[in-house]
Backbone:
Protein backbone atom coordinates (compact mmCIF):
# COMPACT_ATOMS: atom_id res chain seq x y z
CA UNK A 1 0.00 0.00 0.00
CA UNK A 2 1.49 3.34 -1.07
CA UNK A 3 0.09 5.23 1.93
CA UNK A 4 1.69 2.74 4.29
CA UNK A 5 5.05 3.11 2.56
CA UNK A 6 4.95 6.88 2.85
CA UNK A 7 3.95 6.63 6.50
CA UNK A 8 6.71 4.13 7.26
CA UNK A 9 9.28 6.26 5.42
CA UNK A 10 8.30 9.48 7.14
CA UNK A 11 7.36 8.40 10.67
CA UNK A 12 8.95 6.27 13.35
CA UNK A 13 5.80 4.21 13.84
CA UNK A 14 6.83 2.82 17.22
CA UNK A 15 7.51 6.33 18.53
CA UNK A 16 4.25 7.76 17.21
CA UNK A 17 2.22 4.91 18.69
CA UNK A 18 3.85 5.52 22.07
CA UNK A 19 3.13 9.23 21.76
CA UNK A 20 -0.50 8.54 20.89
CA UNK A 21 -0.79 6.21 23.89
CA UNK A 22 0.60 8.85 26.25
CA UNK A 23 -1.38 11.79 24.86
CA UNK A 24 -4.65 9.93 24.33
CA UNK A 25 -7.40 12.35 23.24
CA UNK A 26 -4.97 15.26 22.88
CA UNK A 27 -2.87 13.48 20.25
CA UNK A 28 -4.71 14.67 17.13
CA UNK A 29 -4.61 18.29 18.29
CA UNK A 30 -0.91 17.95 19.07
CA UNK A 31 -0.25 16.72 15.52
CA UNK A 32 -2.39 19.47 13.99
CA UNK A 33 -0.49 22.06 16.02
CA UNK A 34 2.78 20.60 14.75
CA UNK A 35 1.60 20.83 11.14
CA UNK A 36 0.66 24.49 11.61
CA UNK A 37 3.77 25.51 13.52
CA UNK A 38 6.10 23.61 11.20
CA UNK A 39 4.63 25.48 8.24
CA UNK A 40 5.38 28.75 10.06
CA UNK A 41 8.92 27.59 10.84
CA UNK A 42 9.47 26.72 7.17
CA UNK A 43 8.27 30.18 6.17
CA UNK A 44 10.60 31.74 8.76
CA UNK A 45 13.51 29.71 7.38
CA UNK A 46 12.72 30.85 3.86
CA UNK A 47 12.45 34.50 4.92
CA UNK A 48 15.69 34.30 6.89
CA UNK A 49 17.46 32.73 3.91
CA UNK A 50 16.14 35.39 1.53
CA UNK A 51 17.33 38.09 3.93
CA UNK A 52 20.71 36.41 4.41
CA UNK A 53 20.09 36.14 8.16
CA UNK A 54 21.97 32.97 9.02
CA UNK A 55 21.22 33.26 12.77
CA UNK A 56 17.46 33.36 12.17
CA UNK A 57 17.81 30.55 9.64
CA UNK A 58 19.65 28.37 12.16
CA UNK A 59 16.98 29.09 14.80
CA UNK A 60 14.11 28.24 12.43
CA UNK A 61 15.74 25.01 11.27
CA UNK A 62 16.65 24.05 14.83
CA UNK A 63 13.05 24.59 15.97
CA UNK A 64 11.74 22.63 13.01
CA UNK A 65 14.13 19.78 13.79
CA UNK A 66 13.02 19.59 17.41
CA UNK A 67 9.31 19.82 16.76
CA UNK A 68 9.59 17.20 14.01
CA UNK A 69 11.29 14.80 16.39
CA UNK A 70 8.42 15.30 18.82
CA UNK A 71 5.95 13.88 16.25
CA UNK A 72 8.22 10.98 15.24
CA UNK A 73 9.23 12.52 11.90
CA UNK A 74 12.82 11.41 12.48
CA UNK A 75 13.98 11.42 8.85
CA UNK A 76 12.67 14.93 8.29
CA UNK A 77 14.20 16.07 11.60
CA UNK A 78 17.58 14.68 10.53
CA UNK A 79 17.32 16.55 7.21
CA UNK A 80 16.51 19.75 9.11
CA UNK A 81 19.56 19.09 11.27
CA UNK A 82 21.78 18.70 8.23
CA UNK A 83 20.53 22.02 6.84
CA UNK A 84 20.88 23.66 10.25
CA UNK A 85 24.51 22.57 10.34
CA UNK A 86 25.11 23.94 6.82
CA UNK A 87 23.49 27.25 7.81
CA UNK A 88 25.56 27.38 11.00
CA UNK A 89 28.70 27.08 8.85
CA UNK A 90 27.58 29.77 6.41
CA UNK A 91 26.75 27.43 3.52
CA UNK A 92 23.62 29.38 2.62
CA UNK A 93 23.81 28.51 -1.08
CA UNK A 94 23.59 24.82 -0.20
CA UNK A 95 20.66 25.47 2.11
CA UNK A 96 18.94 27.53 -0.59
CA UNK A 97 19.21 24.70 -3.11
CA UNK A 98 17.78 22.24 -0.56
CA UNK A 99 14.88 24.36 0.72
CA UNK A 100 12.47 23.26 -2.02
CA UNK A 101 13.29 19.66 -1.23
CA UNK A 102 12.71 20.37 2.46
CA UNK A 103 9.27 21.79 1.71
CA UNK A 104 8.37 18.70 -0.33
CA UNK A 105 9.58 16.46 2.45
CA UNK A 106 7.42 18.44 4.90
CA UNK A 107 4.38 17.79 2.70
CA UNK A 108 5.11 14.05 2.85
CA UNK A 109 5.34 14.23 6.64
CA UNK A 110 2.00 16.06 6.78
CA UNK A 111 0.38 13.44 4.56
CA UNK A 112 1.76 10.65 6.73
CA UNK A 113 0.60 12.31 9.96
CA UNK A 114 -2.85 13.07 8.59
CA UNK A 115 -3.15 9.51 7.31
CA UNK A 116 -2.10 8.16 10.69
CA UNK A 117 -4.80 10.21 12.42
CA UNK A 118 -7.42 9.23 9.84
CA UNK A 119 -6.55 5.56 10.22
CA UNK A 120 -6.83 5.80 14.01
CA UNK A 121 -10.15 7.62 13.90
CA UNK A 122 -11.48 5.01 11.50
CA UNK A 123 -10.56 2.15 13.85
Residues:
Amino acid sequence: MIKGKVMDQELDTEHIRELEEIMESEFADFVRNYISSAQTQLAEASTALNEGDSDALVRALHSLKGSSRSVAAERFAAYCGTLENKARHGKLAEVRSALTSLAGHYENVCRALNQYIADRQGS
